[in-house]
Amino acid sequence: MSRFSKVSQTVMLLTDGISDTVSLLPWSLGEQGARTYFKLEREGEAVLLDGGAYPALPVELHKNLMRLVNEGWAVQGEVHITFDGMSHGDQDPLVDTDAVTLQIGRRLLPLLDPQLGSPLLDRLRHVREELAADLGFVLPGVRVTDNLTLPENGYALCLRQIPVVAGEVFLDRLLAVGSLAQLGQVQGWSTQEPAFRVTAKWIEADEREKAEQSGCLVVGALNVLMTHVQEVLRTHAAELLGLQDLRNLLGRLSLSHPVVVDEFVRDTRALRFLRKVLHQLLMERVSIRNLISILEVVGDAWCEEMSVEAAVEETRSLLVRQILQTAADDEGNVAAVVLSDELEERMLASPGRPDDLLRHVKQQWEEQGSPRILFCQPNLRRPLRDWMATSLPGVAVVSARDIPGSARLHVLATIAPPKAPEPAAVAAPRRREGSMWKKKS
Q: Are the beta carbons of 186 and 177 closer than 8 angstroms?
């Protein structure tokens, strides 16, 4: 659901007259609703006409709309607004900030045009639905604004008003993604696909067939933008689950599972402990959709006064089947790489971050086709995950102790330590005439 907190255009009520204005969100926190507005323009002035919550246009409203058209107003389109009940309609701009904001440049504004169906808003709704099903909680609404300081084809995604990523998409072109050899067969602007940083080219529409024949994946500008937004939101999901958000989530479970939820609702310290555990899981891209089971494990950890790190490991052990399932192929097989005992010992013996060994692991991992799972011994799992969080964010590091017996594993390779370079051979000194090395007769 999209959330709208401010709109600069005038909103007119038919019952109260042309000059009266109303809020676009006539609902308070906890309520849900939908409303339709008609956009009209006359002599450079733009207004929104309140059509109410009607699924179809009532006869009386249709008559009044025709009267306005006869007075010179031109209907430009409709705006449909839905409210999910999770936002205040009267937020204080000095205190409250939008959790997620997508800023777009001038040439991307057609993506918001009501006459074109506002495709950007529709796709954002689907992205949030997909992430909610994947992550296990509903992310905040994405506020979309124009920013004329951006490049004309540019966009920027902000979290709490701080820019996180930026990029460019071109509505009149397509993005072809492939290898350098494949892309070399088509004409276009060389670039990188923004979400996964792979080689790509912006091509014109008449190059599409040639790009697909060469083996490239060809996608439109809106798909490129939405994929980037989705990956960024997935990466920063932990930052978007606040304490109040978690409390609201538990409130919806209190009727069906009061015993499991009650302790976290009553004790703010337990609630904060739970949030830290969930943050760690989300940072490792582990879904929290099995929240009831997670609450039971974290509740035990809280009563036993475990550390957050220990509680995370206990929770991951519970969710290991779920983690492996996300990396399984259609037949249920899980491809993975394993660290050798020698490599693990060298990592654990390292006094600091073993950068040389980590670079070696990443190289070997890429040579095996970048599998989603990496197995290691239990006491190395946590530090290895922390070390590789930035270089391999999409890899799930799993303790070998937690592998279920029913798992269908396919070990692609066992990564051994890099071989030490062989010492260079030292050539024997040659005897030269007239030198001290000359053999005496």
A: no
Run of H or E including 312: helix 308-318
d(CA 95, CA 106): 29
Sole residue written with tokens 């929290």: 288
- Distance, in Å, from the CA atom of 43 to the CA atom of 37, rounded to the nearest integer, reads 20
Q: What is the pLDDT along the chain (441 residues), one digit of tens a residue?
A: 333 333 333 344 333 333 333 334 444 444 455 667 777 788 877 777 766 655 455 566 677 778 888 888 888 777 666 655 544 444 555 555 688 999 999 999 999 888 888 899 999 999 999 999 999 998 988 999 999 899 999 999 999 889 999 999 999 999 999 999 999 999 999 999 999 889 999 999 999 999 999 999 999 999 999 999 999 999 999 999 999 999 989 988 888 899 999 999 999 999 999 999 999 999 999 999 999 999 999 999 999 999 999 999 999 999 988 888 888 887 888 888 999 999 999 998 887 888 888 888 888 888 888 888 888 988 899 898 888 887 787 788 988 888 887 788 888 889 998 876 656 555 555 554 544 444 444
Q: How far is CA 422 from CA 8, 354, 368, in A?
A: 71, 21, 26
> For the sheet containing 396-399, what is the strand order?
396-399, 373-376, 334-339, 409-415
SS3 28: coil
Q: Long-range contacts of range 183-192, CB-CB < 8 Å, 24 or more positions apart?
A: 183/211, 183/214, 183/216, 185/210, 185/211, 185/214, 186/210, 186/211, 186/214, 186/216
In Å, what is the CA distance from 335 to each residue of 331, 332, 372, 373, 374? 11, 10, 7, 7, 9
371: nearest Cα among 331, 404, 322, 411: 411
How far CA 403 is from CA of 164, 290, 318, 378, 407, in Å, comes to 36, 19, 11, 11, 7
CA distance 3 to 21: 19
Give just the sign of the alpha carbon dihedral 120, 125, 130, 136: positive
Cα 153 to Cα 136: distance, rounded to the nearest angstrom: 33
Q: By three-state DSSP, how is residue 335 classified?
A: strand
- Distances from the Cα of 83 to the Cα of 9, 40, 144, 389, angstroms: 19, 23, 15, 36
Q: Find how far residue 205's CA is from the centre of its chain.
A: 29
Q: Which of 354, 326, 107 is nearest to 225 (CA)?
A: 107
Separation of alpha carbons 35 and 295, rounded Å: 37
CA distances from 112 to 101, 119, 174, 245 (A): 14, 7, 19, 28
